[in-house]
Amino acid sequence: MKMADNLSLKESVLFYLDRSGGLQKLTEDCKQFSDPQHNEAVYRFCISVNPSDVIEVDPVLGDCVLHDPLRATALFQSVCFLAVKTLSLVEKIHTESQVNVILKLTHLPPFPEYMLDLCSFPREYGPMRPVSMEGLVIAMTRVTKYTQGARFLCINDDCPSSTGFHHIRVHAPGATESATVRNDFSCMNCNSQLKEDVKFRVLGDKQLVELIHVKALDVLNAHQQSKHRYQSVTLFLRDELCNSMRIGRLYRVLGIPVHVHQWPNITWSVEANSVRLWEPEYPHKVSVSFQELLKATASSPWRFPAIVAHYFGLDMAPPGFYNTLKLCLLLSLVQTRADAKDTFHYLDLLVVTTDTLILDRLMAYSLGLACRGVRHQASGEMFASLSRDEHGAGTANIHAGSALLATGGICMLGDLGFYKKDRLDSIQSVLEGRTMSMFIPGKKYGEDADQQLSFPIQCSFWALTDPSQRSGRADCDVLGIAEMGPVPIQLADAFGLVIQCRDMMGEQTLLAQTVHTLQQAVQPGKPLYPSCWGFSSQDYQELLAHAQSLQVELSPGAEKIIHGYYMASRRVRTQSQGVKMSVASIKLLISLAEAHCKLCLRTRVLEEDAVIAVLLCENSVTLKHGASALVIPPDAVFPCDLRDVEGLHRRDTTLDELHQNILRFIYTYAPGAETYITEE
Question: Domain named MCM AAA-lid: which ranges (predicted)?
Fold first, then answer.
């Protein structure tokens, strides 16, 4: 009866392969083995299998594919061997065991039984069936070799197995190298010892990857520690899957859980079947409160983001405190993303302040609103570290540091005064090149040659510096230049946007912050500043997620202001200060303008967005290199208090005046500006 069942299932396999185009692909794949010099023990074929289509053809075969993959592989192997022999596709294939079939599943049913939560424990023995899992790559090895298949011959010359392809060993999920190749196998015919025919050994590529639940990043965030413990899972990537994953990225993996026996240990691992990039879904709605605010401020392109920043982080500081920094934090959160072309956009911030405690808390609060945020400890590993692989390969295992773990989000560095000079130099190098290099000594990790690997750094960096600490540069009397403590000017330039939060002078200001801190300690969670606008942390998180998803384009007016300011500023500063405005300045201006446009929930960057970008950028350059002919106040973006409508009106008027000043600056100093800037 079982033989009849197998025959029926093989007929279903043949029908499915014919219907899905699998037989045509098998024919194409066989052409690569037509070379007479190409002699191997086994020939590998990858077959794409859609479980839904298989179930439509034969429910029993579909159940076999989903719950007994080894048996399903044997059925497809038998059918493929018969097709190869019947159609005379590869003359060098003599036995069924020479056909190494790999079933590549397109997907799994969307039911809990087929999902593996990486937080679930314990991981016990169970059926070897495919499951789907989602997680973050935190470590990976270099690509090494493993044995796909090997041919063994009987040492007894009189035995039929002393020639031909009677004894073929093929790698199976969960099998170690010694399970495929070793010297104590016995002949099935005469029980004599088998000896490998080494010239027929087939090697493949292998890579080990550590995958962990994405919630493990909460431990590295600035919030309180989680009560959960997270443990990574080892994935085995083989052949075409090697190098398909990158450290710091999120993936959805289909694989078969296996127990790998390496005496005296047993490790729980997963043989990957397919790998796809994965991004968790975040709510993209805008709360009713923000929708009402957007309607109420529709008359001005500047008011909505100003009020959003004004009431941001009220748990850390009273409204109106550090508004410029709050706005820049929101802009960085909005702009940090990868677009449809996989081009990463970032917005780094360096904050100059003597009040590091309050601003550290404010930045830590903002970090919690990022889709991914990692708070780096000065004593930890920032980029990557090396160790020896513990799964028998002995190769180098590359572990992600804070910057790689923050891929696609924010890496908060904290106070740069706690970093040594060599670490500051490394940060500068990464900020300038957006890549980090790692040297792997070959001798130490079982390789013939040393290797230099590079990893892209795709996150925004936030940092603080205290100007009251030791100086990173000589004293300078140029108007506008700020003391930056231990940060050298080259590192400040690499950050791009520098913000100075000036000391809060006056007893009234100091009293307001003191009262705020004490009330937060005595009555945590109680609203301290009742107003007509009340926004929760969830409101801000949803607003940022929605703004981040918007696709924007530059209007001609915004483009002219950005280009004109860059050309004029480059000309003025080169002539008067010897400072070269790099192309990175244009990228910074565009990023700031786009981010401000998104925070306004618009899809077209207006001149007003470009004005905010110019003011922030000019203040930043002034702090690093001194004032220019474009003279603007230090707090140009928030020149007055925003407690009432009158304050908002005064701000609009001031920004309009600064807008005209920028246009006059461009008209006066930018080469050829008269062709696109009208003098009024």
Answer: 545-620
